[in-house]
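Table S7 (text form). Paired inputs.
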Amino acid sequence: MEIPHTNLENSTITRDEINLLPLIKFQGPIHVIDNKKQIEPAIERLMKEPVLGFDTETKPSFKKGVSHSPALIQFSTEHEAWLFRIHHKGIHPHILKVLQDEHTLKVGVALHDDIKHLQKVRKFKAAGFVDVASLANDAGILKRGLRNMTGILLGGRLSKSAQLTNWAQATLNENQLAYAATDAWVSLKLYHKFDELGLLSQV
């Protein structure tokens, strides 16, 4: 199902086509960071990477006019994922180092919203973020959501079964951990795919 370089212009995919694709998910170690002692060594490890997959998760609201702050920040390498639980503790200064470091690229989809919501938790100057949807737009891909791009470029299907679960609950279940890690990891895979296609010249 992967789309060759010469056929990216106006690339799209239907829901039925996505549903026929094999399910893909992150298979590596997932590190849940939920206390201060874990944060600094995790951030030191992450800042050794030139590019990280990035995403956030927020407890959904089912009442009009009610919203919640982000509960989780996810970073992923090719082989490991780190999930920082921030719903009670806020954004630790060490996490800010990554968010403000222009040399450590953070790649994801619809990053403007993620950054805006995180800045409501703690003010910071975002740097080094690359929106994969913008790369897709430049490549002429019409459907630029994470699930659509995963189908078009990676030939796989993402599960959304945990999307509307409670990300602020006391303990995240295995389905939530896999979902959160996969979203960040897939953004990284998409970035590398655009690199393979020679579409990162302006990043």
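Next pair, protein 2 of 2.
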Amino acid sequence: MRPFVATLAVAACAAFVCTPAAAGEVFAGLGTSGVELGYATRLAPGTGLHVDGEFLSLKRKFEDNGASYDTKLKFSALGLYGDLFLGESFRLTGGAVIGSRKVEGTGVSSGGTITINGTSYVVAAGETVTVDAKFSSVSPYLGIGFGHAKASESVGFYFDAGAVFGKPKVRLTPSATLLAQAGQANVDAEQARLQEKMNKLRAYPVIKLGLTYGF
């Protein structure tokens, strides 16, 4: 976490240095990418820059192939965005999300068996299969939004809607006993099946809403 906070601080300082005479604003909000804190400034008439830190941690349970999965969705990322204003407040936004974005899940047999590559294997209590899906550490973002147009010493609001593009890479790791029963070839085939499903996720939808304060 410390390197991430340091990177955010450097990016925010760079925005101040690049535009020493420009008014700026701090902002905070919530969305599908989690909680975010950031800084925004105007670079020139009609253009701007904003940076933020995005943090998300969600848990979910589901059943698949005879196993009950406890999953976690975790984001800890830095967003760097350029804004092109069309009118007073509406803007087009493009940039990149840099950092860790992943889904982790550990499955435990819910009925005495776990299915891998179409075959069910009888497993003892405590046998598990773990699935990790990690997005690229740098992913492009495109979207539209309102806000960050004018900085004033008052509270305002902002809204963003867009998508972070990129497909996650899947890794399947069964416990040693389950691996011995299924064999590496079947594990690889099951991993490929999961990867094919994830490949359909070409973009992660982003919706954000929050408050700003200018200075």
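The chain has three helices and twelve strands.
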